[in-house]
C-alpha cells in the first residue's frame, strides 16, 4: 500500500472515532437527562398517590358521617311518626285541620292520609 493512502485511512479512522466519541458523549448526556426526569416523575407519582389516598380517606369519612346522619334522621322520622300514630290511636286528630282536638266520630280521612304518606 501507498504511504499516502495509509495516512488518509488513518486520518479517516481518526475522524470517525472523533464523531463516534461526540455521539457517545451526546448519548450519555441524554441518558442523564432521562434518569433525572424519571426520578422527578417517580417522586411526583409518590406525592400524587399520597394525595389520592388522603382524598379517599376523606371521602370515606364523609360517607360514614353522612350515613350516620341519615340513620339519625331516619330514626328521628320514625320516632315522630310513631308518636303521631300513638296520638291518633289515643283518639286525637293529627291532621292540620283539627290537630290536637278529640276525634268524636271515628276515623278522620285527613289524619289517615297524613299517616299513610
Topology:
Blueprint lengths: L2 H87 L19 H7 L2
Q: How would you characterize the overall build of this protein?
A:
The structure is a single chain. The protein has helices at residues 3-89, 109-115. The chain is rod-shaped and about 135 Å long. The protein has two helices and no strands. The longest helix is centred in the middle third of the chain and has 87 residues, at 3-89. The protein is an all-alpha fold and 117 residues long.
Give a quick rundown of the structure.
The chain has 117 residues and is mainly α. Helix content is 80%, strand content 0%.
Low-confidence stretches: none
Question: What is the arithmetic mean of pLDDT?
Answer: 87
Structural class: mainly alpha
Overall morphology = rod-shaped
Helix coverage percent of residues? over 70%
List SSEs in N-to-C order: HH
Q: Could you tell me the strand content as a percent range?
A: under 5%
For the termini, the CA-CA separation is: 112 Å
Please give the number of β-strands: 0
Can you count the helices? 2
Classify the oligomer. Answer: single chain
Q: What is the alpha-carbon Rg in Å? A: 43 Å
Major beta-sheet overview: none
What are its keywords?
mainly alpha, 2 helices, rod-shaped
Amino acid at each position: 500500500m501507498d504511504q499516502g493512502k495509509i495516512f488518509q485511512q488513518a486520518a479517516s479512522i481518526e475522524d470517525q472515532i472523533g464523531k463516534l466519541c461526540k455521539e457517545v458523549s451526546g448519548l450519555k448526556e441524554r441518558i442523564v437527562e432521562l434518569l433525572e426526569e424519571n426520578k422527578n416523575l417517580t417522586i411526583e407519582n409518590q406525592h400524587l398517590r399520597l394525595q389520592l389516598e388522603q382524598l379517599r380517606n376523606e371521602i370515606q369519612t364523609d360517607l360514614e358521617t353522612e350515613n350516620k346522619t341519615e340513620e339519625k334522621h331516619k330514626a328521628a322520622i320514625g320516632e315522630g311518626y310513631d308518636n303521631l300514630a300513638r296520638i291518633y290511636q289515643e283518639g286525637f286528630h293529627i291532621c292540620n285541620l283539627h290537630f290536637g282536638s278529640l276525634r268524636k266520630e271515628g276515623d278522620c280521612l285527613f289524619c289517615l292520609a297524613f299517616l299513610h304518606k
